[in-house]
Backbone:
């Protein structure tokens, strides 16, 4: 079996360096974060929508109170 120039040699006595360990850990963290991202976005946007609705409903009640007095 001949190898091409682009292929890396497989190191049988592989020992993970601190830099490789950090990058692997970072990949795992971001993978976990990206899996949960749609749920987090949903929770975040749900809170924003609820806050906006309470603001709007407060403005509507104030507006109706003003018009009913006239």
Residues:
């Amino acid at each position: 079996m001949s190898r091409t120039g682009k292929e890396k040699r497989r190191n049988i006595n592989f020992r993970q360096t601190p830099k490789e360990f950090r990058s692997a850990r970072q990949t795992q963290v971001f993978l976990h974060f990206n899996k949960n991202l749609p749920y987090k976005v949903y929770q975040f946007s749900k809170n924003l929508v609820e806050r906006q609705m309470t603001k709007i409903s407060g403005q509507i009640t104030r507006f109706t109170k003003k018009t009913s007095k006239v």
About this structure: The chain is about 75% helix and 0% strand. Residues 52 and 58 are 10 Å apart (CA to CA). The mean pLDDT is 74.
